[in-house]
Amino acid sequence: MTNTDLFPTGEQVRDVHAVVDTQRLRETIASYCREVVEVRARWIAEEVFGDYMLTNVVALGAAYQNGLLPSPPRPSRPRSS
Fold it and tell me: Domain of life of the organism in this record (predicted)?
């Protein structure tokens, strides 16, 4: 799961001329993964909630919807009579 919207690091905030090679980042991530799901999590958070602070929640939801989170097997329920 990758958030395709750049989320600036502290260094990028301090150096306004910093350049980020997003294509290289995507290629590097893809080289380590069987599958890459991309989502514009920050954009979605700002559009839906009016704030970027929920970016990680949006990304987590997208990961869940794509079956990318490990989940333990659910215990079986006893049948009611």
Answer: Bacteria
Among 42, 40, 4, 46, smallest CA distance to 23 is for: 4
pTM score, two decimals?
A: 0.71
Could you tell me the residue ranges of all domains in the chain? 2-7+19-65
Give the 3-state DSSP-derived string for 8-47, with helices as H, strands as E and coil as C.
CCHHHHHCCCCCCCHHHHHHHHHHHCCCCCEECHHHHHHH
What is the β-pairing status of strands 2-3 and 38-39? Answer: parallel
Q: Extract the tokens encoding 41.
A: 């999590």
Across the chain, the runs of DSSP E, i.e. the strands, are: 2-3, 38-39
Structural contact between residues 3 and 42, judged by C-beta atoms closer than 8 angstroms: yes
